[in-house]
Description:
Elements lengths: L1 H5 L1 H12 L3 H8 L4 E5 L2 H18 L3 E3 L2 H5 L10 E6 L6 H12 L3 E6 L5 H5 L2 E4 L12 H17 L7 H17 L3 H9 L3 E6 L4 H15 L3 E5 H5 L10 E7 L6 H13 L4 E6 L2 H6 L2 E3 L10 H18 L23
Helix pairs in contact: 2-8, 2-9, 3-8, 4-8, 4-11, 8-15, 9-15, 10-15, 11-15
Amino acid sequence: MAREIAEQPEALARTLEALLPLRGELRSLAEDRRVVLFVARGSSDNAAIYGRYLLEVHAGIPGGLAAPSVATHYHAELDLSEAIVVSVSQSGETTEIVETQAWAAGRGARTVAVTNDGDSSLAAAADLALVTRAGAELAVPATKSYVTQLAAMAVMADAFAPKPGSLDADLDRVPAEVSRLISLRTGVDEAAERLASTPETLVSGRGLTFGTALEAALKLEETCLRPVRGLSYADLRHGPIAVVDAEHVALLVSAADGPMVAGMTDLAHDLRRRGAAATIGIGGDSGFAAAVDVCVPGPDLPELVAPLALVVPAQLTVEALARRLGLNPDAPRGLSKITQTDPANDA
């Protein structure tokens, strides 16, 4: 896992170089289409959440997360003739995702596959495949395959935007920022120490960084075997915040700019007042850093592209925590690289 985290700058650079030239094909595919639906599970689902927010905020196109079971179990007859369906799968071989893409195509959708394997079933059947260049990923927890999926989301949203190319300058900076964060590691070991102090962990973010928060929560669960609640700032405020006490460590994720920083900073202050065992902040601005007990700096990138690098401090923290707990971060208990949702569908 540590080695693959370190490979992310090169993986991102390769992926952006390969996918940015496909923006014209993406725009052609989007002609006369009004909505984008994402199909994914696990880490890929968290990448899709970022894609959905970015499409709506940057490109002005409605997006949503489709439920694969609507296709695979309910076999619903939907009219998708105005939709682009984006199926996201690292392996491109998760049966449920492959079947859902075929179901969508049969109901009029144009299909885009985001996968790390250009020879996969998902890529072969799609109208257009965005093949990430993460290279072979051996550790079960997705790291470089996840960040390259985020890069694919950014390329797609930029292709659909009124002015394609407006993200280019910031995307060019992403690999170097990821490399800097990997080398820096500021706050990572202290964050792992605080997380190890109690098994009760709450993770929160909002907007464009919400998918990053959910990915951090997922990594803590699968890699460190901790029960974790990953909630948006808004959902946390609607009741669950009442459970926070001295047994809880809160991990808060924020970009350095944008409309969500103030709310995440207020949340950090509130969690302190409620007696949380510790508040750990990833990213944010100087006010956010001052509001948390431990700050793990994030990237110097604008909010629209920050998630491509913001997840890296979380990955480093999770890897450090797993080793602190005596666990093998590369092969979490009971998990495999390709997950089939329904055991009956296992190949």
